[in-house]
Amino acid sequence: MYLLPTATSTDESSRDATTAVLPVGSFEQHGDHLPLITDTIVACLIAQRVAETYNLRLLPPITVSCSHEHEGFAGTVSISASTLIAVIDDIRESLARSGVERLVLVNGHGGNHVLANVAQQANVGGPRVVLYPGKADWVAARDHAGMESSISADMHGGELETSILLHSCPDLVQESFRTADHRATDRPHLLVTGLRGYTDTGIIGNPSAATAEKGRAALDSLTASFADHFKVIDP
After folding, report:
1. CB 156 within 8 A of CB 204
2. Given 78, 109, 115, 211, which is the most exposed site by the fewest CB atoms within 10 A?
3. Domain definitions of the chain by residue range
4. Which class is 18-224 in CATH?
5. Distance of alpha carbon 59 from its chain centroid, rounded?
6. pLDDT for 165
7. Average pLDDT, the chain
8. Displacement of CA 126 from its chain's centroid (Å)
9. Left (φ > 0), alpha (ψ -120 to 50) or beta: where does 148 sit?
10. pTM above 0.70, yes or no
11. Is 25 in contact with 15 (CB distance < 8 Å)?
12. pLDDT tens for residues 20-67?
C-alpha cells in the first residue's frame, strides 16, 4: 500500500487533469489498536480510489492537521487552523499556475471543521473546491457496509475506521480492537474538554464489530458516491 502518489511528470502531462485530489489526514491518537496515521490512511485510500476512478490528479497527503481535541493523548501533533488554511491556499495557487483550477479535499479527520469554511469561501465565484466525504456520504457508506453502529456513536477509532484498516492494512491493527469498545454518545462539551472529557482510552465507538469486508464495502460506497460531487464541480 502506497500512501504517496507514484505518478511521474510525464504521467500527469498525459493525464492533463483540471481537477486535483488532496487527502487531508491527521497525526493523532486512535487508542491502543490503531496507528497515529489512521486518518491519513483513510483519506489516502478514498483519494486514491476517487482519483483513479475519475482520472484526477492525486496529490500527497497533508499528514498533520487540527487535532487539538486529542491533545493530552501521547503521540498527537496539531497545527493551527490558520496554518492549515494557508497550506491549502498555497497548494491551490500552485495548482492554478499549471492549469488545475479545481480541488477535491478528501478529509479523513472530523475535527478539521475549518475545511468547510475553506470550501465555502473558495466557491463564492463559482465551483472550485469540493469537501468530501460529507455526512450523507459517510452514512451511506456505513449502511452499504452493514455496520452495526451509528455515525454519532461510532465517533473515533470505532467500527468504521477499524474496518477500513482491517481491509487495507491489517498488519497495522492490533488485536486489542476486539475489546476496545467504549460508549459516550452524549458529548455536549467536547469542544471544551476534548476527548479526555469522555474517554480514557481515546476510543468512542465499537471497534469489536469491525471486519475487513465492511471496510471494503465502505470504500466501494464512497467511491461511487463521489460521482454526484464531481458533477457539481466539473459539469
Report:
1. yes
2. 211
3. 18-224
4. alpha beta
5. 14
6. 98
7. 97
8. 24
9. alpha
10. yes
11. no
12. 999 999 999 999 999 999 999 999 999 999 999 999 999 999 999 999
Would you state the cell numbers that stand for residue 77, as one nine-digit string? 501533533
Cα separation, 139 vs 94, in Å, equals 34
User: What is the DSSP track for the chain?
Assistant: --SS----HHHHHHH--SEEEEEE--B--BTTTB-TTHHHHHHHHHHHHHHHHHT-EEPPPB-----GGGTTSTT-B---HHHHHHHHHHHHHHHHHTT--EEEEEE--TT-THHHHHHHHHTTTSS-EEEES-HHHHHHHHHHHT-SS-TTTS-BSSHHHHHHHHHH-GGGS-GGGGG--B-----TTHHHH-GGGT-SSS-BB-GGG--HHHHHHHHHHHHHHHHHHHHHH--
- The amino acid present at 140, given as its one-letter code, is A
With b for 16 or more beta-carbon neighbours within 10 A and e for fewer, the 26-43 pattern comes to bbbbbbebbbbbbbbbbb
Can you list the pairs that 173-176 forms with residues at least 24 positions away whose Cβ atoms lie under 8 Å?
173/33, 173/34, 174/32, 174/33, 174/34, 175/33, 176/31, 176/32, 176/33
Cell 475535527 belongs to 111
